[in-house]
Amino acid sequence: MMRTIGVVIEQDEHGCYAWCPELKGCQSQGATVEEALANIREAAELFLETLPNEERLTSPHRVVLTTAIEVHA
């Protein structure tokens, strides 16, 4: 079964850190965005495999929205 899971990627001079807000504790990293995405995909699949069947069918159930705001600086 395929499903869509939100991923947040933070990039700095050390590489990329990726995490899934819907899957508490599911996180990974990589040297590039592409590597971080491949790693977090694997981490999410392994995370979901560890859940009991009933939780796997209902998880993730949250919607995560991102946007940008303007602030005075």
The total beta strand count reads: 3
Order of helices and strands: EEEHH
Count of discrete structural domains: 1
Return residue spans where pLDDT drops below 50 for at least 5 consecutive residues. none
Mean of pLDDT: 89
**Percent of sequence in beta strands:** 15-25%
**CATH fold assignment:** Double Stranded RNA Binding Domain
For the record, the CATH architecture stands as 2-Layer Sandwich
Kindly report the spatial arrangement of strands forming the biggest sheet. 1-2-3
What is the level 1 CATH name?
Alpha Beta
How much is the radius of gyration in Å?
14 Å
C-alpha geometry: flat
Indicate the percent of residues in helices: 25-40%
Summing up helix and strand content along with how strands pair, one would put the structural category as alpha+beta
Query: How many distinct helices?
Result: 2
- Classify the oligomer: single chain
**Largest beta-sheet characterization:** 3 strands, antiparallel
Distance between the termini: 46 Å
